[in-house]
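Entry 12.
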Amino acid sequence: PKSSYKLRLPAQTILRGYLTRVQLESIQLCCGQHEMRLPFSGERSGFYFGDGPGVGKGRQAAGIIFENFIAGRKKSMWVSVSADLVADSRRDLADIG
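Predicted 3D structure (tokens):
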């Protein structure tokens, strides 16, 4: 689907290839959803990506958190099935920005 959301990620994050085009597309779609408010509650809309193994969901999550932070949305929550992935998530966040 098309999105009118414009990414605010630093150029170096994109130009250095820290995120693939597919990852950037999902970040764009997700953050576009976050700008929408749900009827009745006024809460932000969410986004779910169910990509298979090896796509880089950790990088996508890091990119979403970073983009939202740049956009002024300072709260985020990263949920993982494994505590072993904490180091991976920290690495992904550090790598992209």
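Annotation: Residues 21-34 form the longest helix (14 residues). The radius of gyration is 13 Å.
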